[in-house]
Amino acid sequence: MAITENSESPSPELMLAFYRRLYPFKSIMNWLNHEHVPTKLYTHREFAFTLQGDVYLRYNSFNSVEDFKKQVCTLNPTRFEIGPVYTARPRDKRTIRPGGFTPLQRELVFDIDMTDYDSIRTCCSDAGICKRCWAFITAAVKVMDSAIRDQFGYKHLLWVYSGRRGIHLWISDKEAMELTDDQRKAIVSWIAVITGGKDTHKKVNARTGSRPLPPSLQMALDPLAHYFGDLILNDQDCFASQEGWEALLHLVPDRSVSENLEKLWTKDPSRSSTQKWDDLKREVKRIEKGSAQRLVMQAAMEDIILQYTYPRLDAEVSKHRNHLLKAPFCVHPKTGRICVPVDPEHIDEFDPERVPTVDQLLKELDETMVQDSPENEEHHFDWERTSLKPYIEMLDRHAMALMDEVRRTKRGADMTW
Amino acid sequence: MFNAGKRTTSTPLKHAPAEVQLHSTAPYPHRLNFYDVPPLFDVTLEEFESAALARLRILAEIESSFVRNRSYDELKSVTDAQCKKYLTLNANSASTQDLQGERRRDHVGHFVLRLAFCRSEELRRRFVKAEMMLFRVRWDTDDTREREGFLESRDFDWTPVDDKEKEAYKEELMAVPSNIRTQYSEGQFKKDKYHKVRWTRVPDLVEKRRVFLKGGWAYVHERESSSMVFQEFQINLEKALDMTAKALPRLDEDTRLIPILDNLSQGFLAGVPSEWLSSSSSGAEGSGVKAEEIDDLAKKHFPMCMRNLHESLMRDRHLKHMGRLQYGLFLKVLGVSIDEAIAFWRRSFSNITDDKFNKEYRYNIRHSYGLEGRRANYPAKSCQQILMQDQPGSAESHGCPYRHFSEDNLQSALLASYSAHGFTASDLPEIMHTVRAGHYHVACTRVFEITHARSGVKKGEGVGGGESITHPNQYAARSRELEKARQEKAESDRDAMLVDG
């Protein structure tokens, strides 16, 4: 069953109870702050609230976790977003001269959204998502995660499910935090391969002529080829419909090959995607080995694999330090699901339909409350008694690694004196 | 010496010492300069200003090249020509030249402009961009050997990639797209040198996938090292400007320098070197234009924006406030005196009574001449101001026609206004193409070139030497200059004929 939008978004009362009892304010602060005591990374950080009725409040900032929690419980927003660390406290923005308020640091963020895959996924469209189309995200996460770790050397990557049909990546390494907008633009265009809008057929243009792909993409190709077979050919059966195989033929540069295939497939429209892909392979094999034509076709087939499986980024999100992105553990206002962290190692097992919703969590909490004696100690760690627990622990581990590193560099710096 | 593993992201302090060796005999051993050290010698006030003005000319030309969308090669040749004229900088091989003298001038000019341009974010950004381009042009025109000498003189903090590492990543390095373009043989690969730097230092190469990345280190082929140099130049300059901005308040005491600096930065903001501004606002054109001559001048010499205002005024016998302001200040700088201006406007507003005119308009006209109220001598609006400020409303005629007219209206207006000067319908597609791309300056400059073809203006020449239109008065002034030259030439030809005869 696909995740459908609840006709009603979570009620304000539910939201308030969630913020009061479950939201991990402390963990979020540790993650943003890299230390236990609030530094500028936290106090000069912008938070933006979306209130009931779509009122948008920007430039909030807080001195402490308590401060933040109090404000969230007062405003009871439907969600909130995290922005950059500025040169001054964002809430003082109006009292600062214009030049004195600029973004300094910010996690490097990426956003992958299922809508960008609408032209190739066959199971759902628009806001819908199911376990089957989540496989596109799985492929994207695998490729991105290893590319960023290997090529850019970043270690502190946090993947967060966006609550509906996408996934966010937050990178908190010191160098990544300090990237300028130009550098962010550079990393995006290094990674992004799928370009061009709805009306461009060929969206992969990463090579010169039919020469080999740049090494970074060549490396991504192997795992993607595997996803191409499972996901595109078998599961999604992308070339089954006439629209689907016509799109494929647009990507075949050799006129005679595409004409042959078109004849074959019009005559026998029932051929599956796997059969059609084999047809294409057979046609290519007929071309003389080592000839220029053959090279062109091989390059084209690689490009097709990339076009159907390579991560599709929402590039604008990553390019600017001052872009706001929804905070982890917010409740998606349409689905009621929590934006939980996702472990890229086990992304294959992740099922968006099994992510807890705010209703479910509060029910779990009520049930355990009945079992335990009501006088049981403070409900400080209420979340420990819900299915939110593993996710919060994941964030805590992530934050701990960050804090360790900061402590290490500090100690290292002390040694030099 | 360099150990990549130990190195963290560099701190600004780290670079400070040992960058440039200043030998007492020859303070400027190289043509290129990273401007690490400010001039530590006495500079006369005159040198202070003249060196800066010369450099400003060059930078302004580079800026207008950006606006005119010139290709890098065009920009390079224009800039190089301008440099030869105003700010020569010879290679070491030119031993007969006063090398140290011209390099000193280059050095001083750069640092004066730093003072002038460090004050606002906008100025800093534009200054860095133009300086970067100037550096790049000089780098590209520099002798290879001297360039290497310059590179060696400075520690760029690159780690050479040793053979073992090179061998380990051989396959990847050879597959970097910029390498495969030229049949890359293994022998060649063995000879080639690679450096590695943090990828953040070469974002432009990363953006184009022209390097190999591993663990955040970019492996850069020596061919691409210029990109690192440029990046380094830019980062250094940005940092230095920030520091200068912080130190600047201490200069406030100096009443000699501040006015010069103010003047310099204003000129740059308007998109024209201040020299042009000063010569025009002091009324150097002040040939005393009479009210009745304006109509004739408008038809011959005005740019489209002013043609439009003039014609609207003639047709409607009225102009709205912003239109009066734009046109009035333009006329003032053109050389229309206050008395003539009042006469002109009185005559043009023929539908209203004397009483109403005196009450409602006379004050404003006098105000714009600095005779009322604040008594400020307002400059005429530059193209930038006309383009960016106060967008015209539905009943208003000010603004820039290239930007604010609909395509149909612009086409018919151009034909109506300039067909007498040789503008034909066949020129329209080119103009409209430029307009659609948003390069209004360029469209206007191109129209100037077309309509002044009979005075010998060629395509790409602009208002002389490739300079493009940045001010309506510049358009009119140049147009009148050309006409004068043509008349003089015609006269001398006639005289010559008479003599011959």
UniProtKB/TrEMBL annotation, chain A:
Top enzyme class: transferase
Presence of the UniProt keyword Nucleotidyltransferase in the record: yes
Pfam families: DNA_primase_S
Any Gene Ontology CC annotation: alpha DNA polymerase:primase complex
GO BP terms in the entry: DNA replication, synthesis of primer
EC number: 2.7.7.-
Keyword Iron in record: no
GO molecular function, one term: metal ion binding
Domain of life, per lineage: Eukaryota
Keyword terms of this UniProt record: DNA replication, DNA-directed RNA polymerase, Metal-binding, Nucleotidyltransferase, Primosome, Transcription, Transferase, Zinc
PANTHER family found in the cross-reference section: DNA PRIMASE SMALL SUBUNIT
Protein family according to the UniProt entry: Belongs to the eukaryotic-type primase small subunit family.
Name of the protein this chain belongs to: DNA primase
Species for this entry: Neolentinus lepideus HHB14362 ss-1
From TrEMBL, chain B:
Chain segments carrying region Disordered: 457-501
Pfam families xrefs: DNA_primase_lrg (PF04104), DNA_primase_lrg_N (PF26466)
Cofactor binding annotation: Binds 1 [4Fe-4S] cluster.
Top-level taxon in the UniProt lineage: Eukaryota
UniProt GO MF annotations: 4 iron, 4 sulfur cluster binding; DNA binding; metal ion binding
Cofactors named for this entry: [4Fe-4S] cluster
Entry binding sites for [4Fe-4S] cluster: C305, C383, C400, C444
Function: DNA primase is the polymerase that synthesizes small RNA primers for the Okazaki fragments made during discontinuous DNA replication.
Family the entry assigns: Belongs to the eukaryotic-type primase large subunit family.
Protein name per its UniProtKB record: DNA primase large subunit
